[in-house]
Amino acid sequence: MKNPMLEAVSLVLEKLLLISNLKLFSSGAPGEDKARNTFYEINSFLRGDVLEVPRTHLTHYGIYLGDNRVAHMMPDILLALTDDKELTQKVVSNKRLILGVIGRVASIRVDTVEDFAYGADILVNHLDRSLKKKALLNEEVARRAEKLLGMTPYSLLWNNCEHFVTYCRFGTAISPQADKDISKCTVKECGNAVPLPAMPESCPVIAAEVIRVSIQRS
Q1: From 134's CA, which of 58, 96, 165, 188 has a CA 20 to 30 Å away?
Q2: Could you read off the pLDDT of 35-46 as tens digits, one per residue?
Q3: Which run of H or of E encompasses 108?
Q4: Helix-strand-coil split of the chain, %, nearest 5
């Protein structure tokens, strides 16, 4: 059964996280001027690699599928307003992204490396080292990503781009980035850290992995 109190706490934490990162989202597309002049060594990427784009406060992740294609999760309010793929496939603007986060609507979509990174530097398989986890075979990683393409609910806590890539790469959906931000947010707003609320029952398949991880940690 759903727990209204835990879902309310989860919603409040998500809003606090959004507010704390609003400056990043609203400051314009990262690397907008640089994007047009950045050259990426696409031939050095292997199918199934995790591509990581560090930002000022957040890091964006995707799975390289080969042929200059990257699968990544992007919040996008336009998905809730139209079925026109010609419109929704265009590069997601910051306004669409912010409203998508608020509306909890996103898709796992495929973009070019250039559109995915938008002028920022790219780290390859950095999560393998930072998480110290054994990765699945690259082909399995890519196939997992391809199976999940399409619309998905979005949550800063339970279903973000990091959950997507860790599920594909390691078989377990986790987001150290979200955990870290939650700890900072709860300490700042509440005076002390509060327990992470249980995941709502309406979670998609990726985020459902977080339940198993949370149980193992407890």
Answers
A1: 58
A2: 445 678 899 999
A3: strand 105-111
A4: 50, 15, 35
Please, where are the H alpha helices in 132-200? 138-147, 161-170, 176-190
Do 124 and 180 contact (CB within 8 A), yes or no?
no
Answer yes or no: 185 catalytic. no
Under DSSP, the state recorded for 60 is E
Catalytic residue chosen out of the listed positions 161, 168, 185, 203: 161
- 127 neighbors 169 (Cβ within 8 angstroms): yes
Q: How confident is the model over 187-216, as pLDDT tens digits?
A: 444 444 444 444 444 455 454 444 444 444
Nearest to 98 by CA among 109, 90, 106: 106
Structure token digits, residue 119: 């002028």
CA distances from 193 to 51, 53, 106, 157, 187 (A): 31, 29, 29, 15, 5
CA distance 94 to 24: 10
Tokens in use for 155? 């949550």
Task: Please list the ranges in the chain whose pLDDT falls under 70.
Answer: 1-38, 56, 181-218
